Amino acid sequence: MDRRALLRHLLWVPALAVPATARADEAALWRLLQAGGQVVLMRHAATTPGVGDPPGFALGNCRTQRNLSDEGRQDAQRLGRLLRARGIPVERVLASPWCRCVETARLVFGRDPEIEPALGNLFGRPAQEAGQVAQLRRLVRPGQAGNLFMVTHGSTTLALTGVSPAQGEMVVLSPQAAGDFQVAGRLAAR
């Protein structure tokens, strides 16, 4: 087999190799979201290259931050269409004050999110982690008819759940009593 044929083969096979159990788990997560009452941590969509924000960035000035790429904007719009097509009820939308999270929320849900400082980026800010995680736990509570979507950062999701999501990926939490929760699973926008 020549190199091009081998490469095509290697790129094609994994798409077919998704185990049936993974597809069943994904279907169960979509049903869980359709029933409502879940909390969804969504990492912002794809951004321009880099990690963190440039030195001297300002939350009130999007030009000083790392922002969504064109691909990220398209991905966010696609996710919004997917959520609507699947009939996912949305009770509230919260977002980190970072521009990439606010823009992701607007593109996915078609409305301005409520800004929630507890969803702020923890990357490079380890001293803030304990306080923010405590605030986030208070937001994860049962009793909602629809789902609570929180658009945030990978570092913030990791600190709360132990899961490091890809850009645009959702981590579904099933709230329990007293700020506790169970990670129900992860969904990528497809």
From TrEMBL:
Listed SUPFAM superfamilies: Phosphoglycerate mutase-like (SSF53254)
InterPro entries the UniProt entry points to: His_Pase_superF_clade-1, His_PPase_superfam
Keyword set includes Transferase: no
SMART domains cross-referenced by the UniProt entry: PGAM
Domain of life: Bacteria
Entry keyword set: Signal
Coiled-coil ranges from the UniProt annotation: none
Signal peptide start and end residues: 1-24
Gene3D superfamilies found in the cross-reference section: Phosphoglycerate mutase-like
Record-given protein name: Histidine phosphatase family protein
Biological source species: Ramlibacter aurantiacus
